[in-house]
Design goal:
Elements lengths: L13 H15 L1 H9 L6 H8 L16
């Protein structure tokens, strides 16, 4: 786990930390991003939720949680 020392008061390391965290998130999701880039189909969030097990289709509740 990385440690980022920042200060919102002095604006120390804010941009660098955000950039590094974004790079780590993108690297962790590279496989999914590559598949999305190769696909010409419209993004289907419901299918992605089911694939990741984030959607409980048996609950009968029409509300959905955040996919991210």
């Amino acid at each position: 786990m990385d440690f980022f020392e920042t200060s919102a008061f002095t604006n120390h390391n804010i941009t660098e930390t955000f950039t590094r965290l974004a790079e780590q998130v993108l690297a962790a999701n590279k496989k999914d991003l590559d598949l999305l880039r190769m696909s010409n189909d419209e993004l289907n969030l419901a299918a992605l939720e089911e694939e990741e097990g984030l959607c409980d289709s048996t609950a009968g509740d029409e509300r959905k949680g955040c996919w991210c």
